[in-house]
């Protein structure tokens, strides 16, 4: 996803702060990106500042080798490195809420693995709404191009040795509470209109090419 190393730099949103209205208003998106996501970037850099040997590792390498990191750094890298990875995929995976549907290989795979795009949506919504506490719901693919819906807790990432994430929705309260209060299901329903299917489809095709390589 990214090959940068320490010090990690906060990525700007790939659209304007009002681009996701009315699903996500300016205040919600500004706090989420400029405060919450920034804190994960800053805290990841803070912990890595004490470990020169970790400063050459990419974010993905750090997250795939948590068990091998110095014990005192593991929890912080897991929480803050995961926070950076997850938010970058989340923000990058959205666009203005104007009609876009899955096409090409990803659309075919959604139909093959879930019955229809709508059935996938129902299962994805269920995963996002039912996630207890703070976490994420994901659409991922394995090394054979099969699609799966997953949930992770806190800022945990899917097993990146096995799965390539294609889409993710943040169901921490900070992602929606300013605008939706406790109505997580309404936020998730709106998120489906924000999905950047072009980018998700490109990620899927890249994963398929890796499989053939
Ligand atoms: Mn978040």
Describe the structure.
- With 213 residues, this protein is mainly alpha-helical.
- It has 2 domains: 26-92, Fe,Mn superoxide dismutase (SOD) domain (Helix Hairpins, Orthogonal Bundle); 104-212, Iron/manganese superoxide dismutase, C-terminal domain (minor pseudopilin epsh fold), CATH 3.55.40.
- The chain is built from 8 helices and 3 strands.
- The chain has helices at residues 26-48, 59-64, 71-92, 104-114, 117-130, 177-180, 184-194, 197-212; strands spanning 135-141, 147-153, 164-170.
- The protein has a 3-stranded antiparallel β-sheet with strand order 2-1-3.
- A hairpin with a 5-residue loop joins β1 and β2 (147-153).
- α1 packs antiparallel against α3 (71-92), α4 crosses α8 (197-212) and α5 runs antiparallel to α7.
- The longest helix is centred in the N-terminal third of the chain and has 23 residues, at 26-48.
- The radius of gyration is 17 Å and the shape is globular.
């Amino acid at each position: 996803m990214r090959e940068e190393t320490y010090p990690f730099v906060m990525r700007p949103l790939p659209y304007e702060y009002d681009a996701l209205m009315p699903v996500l208003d300016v205040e919600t998106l500004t706090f989420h990106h400029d405060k919450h996501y920034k804190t994960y970037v800053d805290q990841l850099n803070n912990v890595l500042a004490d470990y020169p040997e970790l400063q050459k590792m990419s974010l993905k390498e750090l997250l795939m080798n948590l068990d091998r990191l110095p014990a005192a750094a593991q929890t912080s890298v897991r929480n803050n490195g995961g926070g950076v990875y997850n938010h970058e995929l989340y923000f990058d995976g959205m666009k203005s809420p104007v009609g876009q549907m899955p096409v090409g290989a990803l659309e075919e795979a959604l139909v093959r693995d879930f019955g229809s795009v709508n059935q996938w949506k129902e299962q994805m919504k269920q995963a996002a709404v039912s996630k207890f506490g703070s976490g994420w719901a994901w659409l991922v693919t394995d090394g054979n191009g099969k699609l799966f819906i997953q949930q992770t807790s806190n800022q945990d990432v899917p097993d990146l040795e096995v799965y390539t994430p294609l889409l993710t929705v943040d169901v921490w309260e900070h992602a929606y509470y300013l605008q939706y209060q406790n109505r997580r299901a309404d936020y998730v329903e709106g998120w489906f209109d924000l999905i950047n299917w072009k980018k998700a489809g490109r990620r899927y095709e890249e994963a398929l090419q890796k499989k053939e390589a």
